[in-house]
Amino acid sequence: MNSSHSDLQIAGDILEVQHLLQPAREHPATVAEFAGLARSIAADRSQWAHLVQYDAVSRWYHRLRTVPQALGSARAGEAPIGYEVWLLSWVPGQGSGAHDHGASSGILTVLDGELTEHTERGVRSLAAGSQRVFAPGYAHDVVNDSLEPAVSLHVYYPGLTDMPMHPAQSPPATQDAVPA
Ligand SMILES: [Fe+2]
User: Any idea which positions bind Fe cation (predicted)?
Assistant: First the structure.
């Protein structure tokens, strides 16, 4: 017998057993669903390509979506958790500076071009289609080291309220705080 064969069979009409079907969720609620949201936006260029601008003087960014109250809080009495989706562009040489994301988790998805992520663990090249999922407190410095502009999509949950720069490695303090 084929080892991948499943013994599960559904007799009759699956639509007759509504309790077996998960209702479609309006908003993502798990890491996998947030990553899926980012991939679905990435795959649909009509949602973002016409919005992208490149600015050689200061970092360009655009908030694509903000949902203040998407999920119930894990703890009674706490406010529901929302999420934000940001679109960022990077001309060659532009970088974020070393930073973390406060209490937010995040998903970075490269839409166009190539970015380089520096962390204390090393250097990682992120080509278009790459995704990085990170937990609260994760620190990195993202740079466009290539010769072509790059575009990235950033999902933060909860929405980004604080993005502490890490002064030891970051550029001068005149740099604007830009989500990254
Ligand atoms: Fe970041």
Answer: 99, 101, 140
Q: Would you give the DSSP letter of residue 128?
A: T
User: What stretch of H or E contains 33?
Assistant: helix 31-43
| CA 11 to ligand 1 centroid distance, Å | 49
Given the structure tokens 């309790």, which residue do they identify?
19
Q: How far is residue 42 from each of residues 2, 129, 158, 165, measured CA to CA in Å? A: 37, 8, 20, 27
Give the separation between CA 24 and CA 94, rounded to whole angstroms: 39
Summarize pLDDT for 35-63 with one digit per residue, the tens. Answer: 999 999 999 999 999 999 999 999 999 99
Could you read off the pLDDT of 136-160 as tens digits, one per residue? 999 999 999 999 999 999 999 999 8
33 alpha carbon – ligand 1 mean position (Å): 19
Domain boundaries, the chain: 7-175
Residue 6 Cα to ligand 1 midpoint, Å, equals 42
Task: Give distance in angstroms: CA of 72 to centre of ligand 1.
Answer: 25
CATH of domain 7-175: 2.60.120.10
Beta pairing partners, 152: 88, 110
CA–centroid distance, 156 to ligand 1, in Å, is 9
